[in-house]
User: What shape does this take?
Amino acid sequence: MSHYDIAIIGAGPSGSTLAKLIPSNLKTVIIDKRDLFITSQKFIEPKFNSKNLKIDDFDSKNSVYDSDFNKKILFNRSKIEKSCGGLLAFDAQKILKKLDLKIPSFVIDSNQLFSIHAIDLESKNESVYPKNYINIDRDSFDRWLFSLIPDYVDKKMGYFLDKIEKTDNIIKFSLLKDGKYEFHTSKFLVGADGALSKVRKYLNPKNTPPLYLTVQDYFEKDFNLQHFVAFFHSKLTDFYGWIIPKESHNIVGLSFRQNSKKRDIFFKSIDLRMEFLKKEISKYYPSFNKEKYFRSGGVHFRPEYVDEIFLGRDNIFLVGEAAGWISPSSAEGISFAIETAILLSESFRNLNSVLSDYKKKTLHIKKRLLFKILKSPFLYSKNIRNMIFSTNIGQI
Assistant: This one.
């Protein structure tokens, strides 16, 4: 058993950034279920395939529960990966520049994008407008950020967080790896473990953002696409779908909230939904009218109110998407993840007022998120969107 000043659960952009910036006088450990020491592979074997899943594969321990659905979503956590297309928006680029970090070449995809092709699949209206993203390999990006963590931070890779217990001012937590348990304690605990955060679940806040389900199908690349494609269809989702071209393949993705009134079991609708989507986009891009060779799945928050943002309680804190920091208009979360990690690291300079300082430092981000929350219904209103298309105003 080891005792730490700070234990960080999750080594994504928020967790790795926090571990990098934590003062060296604080004994810190970062924990992740992935082994980020292993050299990145830009394309890995399938982790998720709805055709191979049966209802018997699921039980209450593996199910994700969202009270807004008023029912259990059968979504096995062991088959969920971070389903991220790997585009760094301007806000994320800006925050990396603030840290004086230059993205290495092995992270950057050779197929860079300089515009968006927005399509309303129902009205057939469309628009193309300039917008610069940095197209990256997300797995390599996470491993790069992890590699920047100083040697004085302990790193436990391939470990799953099992249980959390709090006694007075000491936090006890157990980890599981290869069937063996480890038990540790810490003065502070940080959840940087995304939308399915076990740390957030332990804190059990009153309000939590709705969970959206993300499916990405991968296709062999037989043509070059120089822009990001965003498409909308009210029968498919109240959010949006996308095409992201990569160096060796093209990704077709869709994010949607489970509609419990229409579909009883999520996995019975995935293939039908994606086949319908493929048929619609093949009218614009015929290359996708063929069989995928890989599918990934994941979940993300989509906040509707600012009071769904939860920063923590007592000596347990949340950063990045675990706290609810993610754009409801685009699902961009990397900028929020890194920025909130920076602010929490600064708050650790005074160990007697970490949470209160963290709340003060993030007020401006909460205001920015509120603007995106207010903007989101207008962006995803079919009538307003088509008005924008027809008037050729440009960016949505």
Residues 3-38+54-391 form a domain with the FAD/NAD(P)-binding domain fold (CATH 3.50.50.60). Confidence is low (pLDDT under 50) at residues 41-80, 262-267. The first helix runs from residue 13 to 21.
